Amino acid sequence: MKTLIKSALDQVHAEETLKAKTAAFIQAQGAPSGNTVAFTPKKSRSMHKKLLAVACALLLVCGLGAGGALYYQHPVAYLSLDINPSIELGVNAFDRVVAVTSYNSDGDAVLSDLQLYRQSSADAVATLVQAAAQKGYVYSDGSTVISLTTETDQPALADTLQQSAAQAAQQSLLASGNTAVVYTAGVGLDLREEARTLGISPGKLNLIQKLQQLDPSIATESYQNARVTEIMKQIITLNKEAKTNGKELPGLQGIENAIAQLEQNAEKEANSGTTENKEQNQQKETNEVAGETTNGNGAKTKAGSNSDAASSSSAQNGTGNRDAAPAEPQQNGGKQQNAPANSMEAPKDAPTQNTDDTGEADTAEPANTGATSSAQSGGGQGQPDTAGNGAGGQNKK
Amino acid sequence: MMEKTPYGTNDVITKALEQYADMVRRICFMYLRNEADVQDVFQEVFLALFLHGPGFESEEHQKAWLCRVAINKCKDVCKSFFRRRVSSLDEMELPFEDPQESEVMAAVLALPPQYKDVIYLFYYEGYTVPQIADLLHTKENTLYSKLHRARALLKQALGGSYENFD
Lengths: 397, 166
Known about the structure:
By secondary structure, chain A is an alpha+beta fold. Helices cover 52% and strands 9% of the residues of chain A. Chain A is elongated and about 125 Å long. Chain B is mainly alpha-helical. Chain B folds into two domains: 1-92, Rna Polymerase Sigma Factor, Chain: A, CATH 1.10.1740.10; 94-166, Arc Repressor Mutant, subunit A, CATH 1.10.10.
């Protein structure tokens, strides 16, 4: 046995190549100083420790990744776009659209072949407005209100979102050659919850609630599928009635401005020839309208372009604003002041834009001044309601 | 300074390579069935010697040291995670002509790793049990039991055809 093992193992020799390789390897490892080398042998850690380290690293990476993904997917604000199609965009902290909800069948139709995910909120709004226009939800006569309602509890975020969204909507309208009034408003997240339970888009519910404040007998359902334009008109109509009783609803400047703008558009439409280049027409018409002092709607100013939306939304609670005035031609004694200002500005402006001059002219009106300023200071029950460059916004700050 | 030699390393390593390469290779042969592992261990053993430098009391000391390092490194490889779970592709064939040798060696190589060192040191290198105990830093009695069990396993494997186990 012993001899067998010995003889067998005697046949095992180290190959010359192995020796040579080893020698080369050691030479490669060793410093020239021979045996006192500064070579530190690699410490072999036990497999368990390595596994543990790898597992920890994996866990960390997964955790970070999952956390990041969750954070990215989490909407910090919502933007409700209502024409009649009601669509709500969830916007994350990076201003990217991470959720899209349609609140009615028109909304489904608009969304049908759109990819909004990961677009910036402004891009998404532009895309939506364009799609809605293509599908005929934005009437060519300019008699459409596009309502952009932000839903967040962070006022600063609401401001920036409203501004960028309104701007995007305007540009999209301009680019596609359509006319519409852009109206912005901001609501809190509590209203969003309420709207979701009712299945109505928060933007629309916001308007319907105003309607209900004016006429408590109105059922939410009856306006569920109405166009925003209709609801707004109804609000103004009711508000006029209420005003005669001295009970008009505060904080409606935005809507008034929007409606005024609508009337303006309608007028343009009526005046303009059908064949002419639309934009030219509109510009002309703008001039004409501006020139008509009797009309002097301070609210010629389109609602949407308000850089003031934000600030006025902070003033949103204002009870003030008895002034349906800007929307109402009859009242304008002093509106004549507006006219010149407008007529000067209008040609330069894109059809959908407005100048603050008109607003300021408005505020110069004695009747209005008190009202608008009270809009800012007063704490009313109204929803944050900021119309474009609504009168409230234009109040001198 | 490093003295250039046929292998290009210093003389300690060169000499050790000449003298003990076969021994280290045999120990590797006892434990490892994979060419790449053999090469790794072989190099690591001599690298260890290189890093250890001179300072052995005697030739015997150096030989014993190399034995121990080689056995430890082989065992490390054997118990490493991948080796235990991944079967090697290129198993080396037994190089023995004599069928008896092949049979015995097959049985020896089939022993669990913890018996191989005793078998090798006892049967091949001819160390006595106290010497092995010194070399492996183990108790003599442990070695006697190991040797006993290893023999029993061999006997079982070889079907009692080799009675002389001394």
